Amino acid sequence: MSDTDPHFNLRLPEELKVKLMEAARDNNRSATAEIVARLEETFANEDIVEAKAARDALMVELGAVLQAGLSAAEDLNEVKNALQEAQKVLNAKQAAPLPPEENKPR
């Protein structure tokens, strides 16, 4: 931070000022640097929260897509099973001897 940065007057409750000064001392920073660091962290956390919300929305969407895919796979499996049954019936009919025809032309 430089002395050319804009100044900003701030009123704080006494207890908050004491906490701020203690935190600044513990972190080897000035009170101004402590305030700036905490504000920057707050805004960074907002970005993280927004990113997590976007990720969660995408996960819900992905879940819906996967569920639709599973449903389609189940439908295809049912169609496959029906086709296999139809093939068995067709094979059985083709393998069966033809019934004698009563009215054969002579």
UniProtKB/TrEMBL annotation:
<dbReference type="GO" id="GO:0003677">
    <property type="term" value="F:DNA binding"/>
</dbReference>
<dbReference type="InterPro" id="IPR013321">
    <property type="entry name" value="Arc_rbn_hlx_hlx"/>
</dbReference>
<dbReference type="InterPro" id="IPR005569">
    <property type="entry name" value="Arc_DNA-bd_dom"/>
</dbReference>
<feature type="domain" description="Arc-like DNA binding">
    <location>
        <begin position="3"/>
        <end position="49"/>
    </location>
</feature>
<dbReference type="InterPro" id="IPR010985">
    <property type="entry name" value="Ribbon_hlx_hlx"/>
</dbReference>
<dbReference type="Pfam" id="PF03869">
    <property type="entry name" value="Arc"/>
</dbReference>
<protein>
    <recommendedName>
        <fullName>Arc-like DNA binding domain-containing protein</fullName>
    </recommendedName>
</protein>
<dbReference type="GO" id="GO:0006355">
    <property type="term" value="P:regulation of DNA-templated transcription"/>
</dbReference>
